[in-house]
Amino acid sequence: MQTSTRTSQRQSQSANADADSLLKVENLHWQADARAILEHISFAIAPGSFVGLIGPNGAGKSSLLRCLYRVNRPTQGRIQLNGQDIWHSSAREIACQIAVVLQETTGNFGLRLRDVVRMGLTPHKRAFEFDSAADLALVDDAIDQVGLTALAKQPFDQLSGGEKQRALIARAIVQRPKLLLMDEPTNHLDVRYQIQVLELAKHLGTTVLSSIHDLNLASAFCDQLLLLNQGELVEQGSPDQVLTEATLANVFGVCSSIDRHPDHGHPRITYHYGYRSGDHGNNSSGVSDD
Ligand SMILES: Nc1ncnc2c1ncn2[C@@H]1O[C@H](COP(=O)(O)OP(=O)(O)OP(=O)(O)O)[C@@H](O)[C@H]1O
User: Fold this and answer.
1) What is the pTM (predicted TM-score) of this model?
2) Name one GO molecular function term (predicted).
């Protein structure tokens, strides 16, 4: 595994922002079956920012997110939310502060959409405490915000992929988290729903960390990007800093040209297919048409 020098430079830059960070991860390591999956992961996320977690298949994105929502216990290092170590907090305390949207959610056993959204209230409730009229109004308002009022009584498992993701965002709205973690929330969605789901998450006004495979979507929506490769954080910074032709060649093994998107001004990636080594300025990807 290699650690980029640019990463350490950016890590020291981001250290200046640490005091104001909502989430701070320090030297996180995680291993499974005696194999190192994540190593030397350090970053901080400022409140209100929309951060994309990118990287090739198997880089460790889901493993890192699972550490952050307390499924994978790090073998080394510290994760702090608002200055509090998440592994020294109760599961309920964390559930009040962190909402999670995963890529495929099944097994809701006949629950209707409204019941699934209502589950966002649970972490804030005591045992046997009933939902108040204000709680139920919050649920209906969240369903309305994601445009699913007409489907509120529909069994969750019968919804389309895009409708399920929007329902889970409605659940997150109800949960009122400080941090929303999303693992490939746009997987299997058509392009309209990919944009819609990310727009909904962006306009929640909460801090978001989401893994995203589509680098152009990551560029369009994210304030900051974390680039994982082989279990290490090799780049972190703005889309301009992270999405370079050289990085895409080195980490993803693709040849690309990058210009500015005419609407949002962030990097816009055009991929080149079937080129021969030497056809383009940067050919370190080793991609060829042989
Ligand atoms: N519980 C586990 N036990 C053993 N190996 C694991 C476990 N969880 C993840 N891994 C391994 O860790 C590596 C990283 O997996 P992870 O799912 O985190 O990658 P990813 O970046 O999310 O990949 P993708 O983009 O393909 O979803 C993979 O090689 C995977 O097989």
Assistant:
1) 0.86
2) ATP binding
